[in-house]
Amino acid sequence: MDILNIKNLQVQLDKKIILNNINLQFQKGKVYGVLGPNGSGKSTLLLSIAKIIKIKNGSIHINKKNLNKYSIENLSKVISLLSQNFQLKLPYTVEEIVFMGRYTYTKGILSKEEQNFIDNIIEEMDLCKLKSTQVTKLSGGEKQRVLLAKTLCQDTNIVLIDEGFSNMDIHYQIKFMKLLREKAYKDNKLIIFVMHNLLLAKKYCDNILLLKNGEVYNFGENEKVLTNKALKEVFNIDGKFSGNAFEIF
């Protein structure tokens, strides 16, 4: 069942068309990778879905309901977004930041069940030893783990992640891609991940959206989308895929 439908989407920023003629359908229980060169509209797509950027033309429907009919509070129970532009500048502790992901549900009052839910997410993100540490004292990769924990604490059916692993060590990138895929499958979530790592996308994403110059180059199962032709035409790479690796000529 399609949970997210995008029809004839066009987004304009500062009189420049960033996305044009975007038609997509996303299903729950899958991980979608969004790839493309810088400036192809990847982040703009996620921000449009999250109602942070106003669309110029077209429509976005979530659970068959137009995005414009969602209040910010109601949307926060349906969509969570880890934005690459979110910065941790105030001296909150790790636990306090993660707790913010539950605020829509708790209004600041934690039950034992809610606390256990937060503690489990903190453990999944390997943040137990940093629980009481101020986020301003963390490394870039540690901050990304905190923000991922906060995002997952919203426990929404749709999870949007914009380059959320870029500063993490590679073993954490692999660990959390596995975790996200598990959550998609077991909890029937839709996870859409903007990323640059072609190999992680090929191995852990069910479907791939390739964007080029603000339009859909290809969209579908990763084996059919991540082709040698796409390497050249989208990423300007002379090479070929070989299993979950690729060779550069």
UniProtKB/TrEMBL annotation:
EC supergroup of this enzyme: hydrolase
Keywords per UniProt: ATP-binding, Hydrolase, Nucleotide-binding, Translocase, Transport
E.C. numbers: 3.6.3.-
Example GO molecular function: ATP binding
Transmembrane segments: none
Stretches assigned to the ABC transporter domain: 4-238
Record PROSITE patterns: ABC_TRANSPORTER_1, ABC_TRANSPORTER_2
One Pfam family, short name: ABC_tran
InterPro entries, alphabetized: AAA+_ATPase, ABC_transporter-like_ATP-bd, ABC_transporter-like_CS, P-loop_NTPase
PANTHER family, alphabetized: HEMIN IMPORT ATP-BINDING PROTEIN HMUV (PTHR42794)
Protein name: Hemin import ATP-binding protein HmuV
Designated gene of the protein: hmuV
